[in-house]
Amino acid sequence: MQRLINYEDAPPDVRAIYDDIRATRKTDYINNFWKALATDPASLKRTWESVKQVMAPGALDSLTKEMIYIAVSVTNQCPYCIASHTASAESKGMTGEMLHELMAVVGMANETNRLAAGYQVEIDERFN
Known about the structure:
- By secondary structure, the chain is an all-alpha fold.
- It is 67% helix and 0% strand.
- Helix 1 (12-25) runs parallel beside helix 3, helix 4 packs antiparallel against helix 5 and helix 4 (62-76) crosses helix 6 (96-118).
- The longest helix is centred in the C-terminal third of the chain and has 23 residues, at 96-118.
- The protein is elongated and about 55 Å long.
């Protein structure tokens, strides 16, 4: 199991990133993903900066981005990411019905992707 670095045990560079996570997310909570990455401060900083940039509202709203993150996490079979991004999506307004529909889309996309790949279906000219 990965060692976790709590705030009170963190060196100043890690505390600064934890402080930014707290400020950006408007929370006092630092989850275990960040605490595990803190054992490698360079990876923690790089990953946090990327997540902060990618997950910020833009052409896609925050809830849509969280739901995409859930879909990819389900496909990649990452229980931690599924749990944390489901909680985040729920805090942004995702309902149980939305989650059920999302899982139906994820399941269907995975099934039809495998069928298209397995049958080596040629891409239609109009899609190119």
